[in-house]
Amino acid sequence: MTRTSRRRTRRWLLTAALTAVAALVVFPLYWMVVSALTPGGQSQSSEFYLWPDAPTTDNFTEVFAQQPVWQWLGNSFFVASVGTALSVCVSLGAGYALAKYRFRGRGLLYAAFLVTIMIPIQVTLVPAFLVTARLGLVDSPWAVILPTLFDVVGIFIARQFMLGVPDALIEAARLDGAGELRTFFRVVLPTCWPLVGVLVILGFMNRWNDFLWPLVVLQGNESLTVPVGLSTLTNNPAFTSPWGAVMAVATVAVVPLLVVFLVFQRTFVQGIASTGIK
């Protein structure tokens, strides 16, 4: 076997392996869509099939008619979009300060940030709820947004990325008479669009899929986000078989995540690569 044929064989084997892995990753999403288009969500039959004989949108019609799904989607979009926007601003500012400013206790402060990553949310759940209740924010979208503005992972990624911004570029802007805010917005921020893409995708995904904290602070049925609303469908007596309704809502809930990822896909890949290299 020649070297060219060996390379071609390895390429075909690699393509086959990646195709198999991609199929395993995509199949649960496909199965979700199939279940959403099947009466009863495939729970009425023990037969295995890849496509229903009579696909229908009855699951979508039933769940949207009986539950405030549009309200859940609106709540999730508001929490995810506003929370992500504010969190990205905080992460960019904190990352820039930790990467480019020299002040006493900077290393200790950064170490304290990283230590908080190791603290599970269950430890701070009760104190955070008590503070939220004292502020009168329970059952409000701001009860979900405000406690998540300080994103330690986002600050860590922002700091690692901004370490690669040349100090000479910042000093040149200062020598030209630019203030600190103007230097940040006009010189540093334009170089950080890959970083912004990473923070937007990670932040939006985490807030859209967050379940535990919204479950604690959101109480009214119309105030729920999509993940919490989905949990209420499984034991809802209004549905003879809840799995069709669950799969229908889950199918709709995936769409915003796909749109955000497709919009920021290129900057996401560039940001991850740049952060890793730095």
The level-1 CATH class = Mainly Alpha
Average pLDDT, rounded to a whole number, is: 85
Could you give the count of β-strands? 0
Strand content: under 5%
Instruction: Compute the number of structural domains.
Output: 1
Q: Give the class from helix and strand content and strand pairing.
A: mainly alpha
Q: Regions with pLDDT < 50 over 5+ consecutive residues?
A: none
What is the global morphology? flat
Strand count, sense and barrel status of the largest sheet are:
none
Query: What is the name of the CATH superfamily?
Result: MetI-like
Helix/strand order: HHHHHHHHHHHHH
Gyration radius from CA atoms, angstroms? 24 Å
- Annotated CATH architecture: Orthogonal Bundle
Which fold name corresponds to the CATH topology? Answer: MetI-like fold
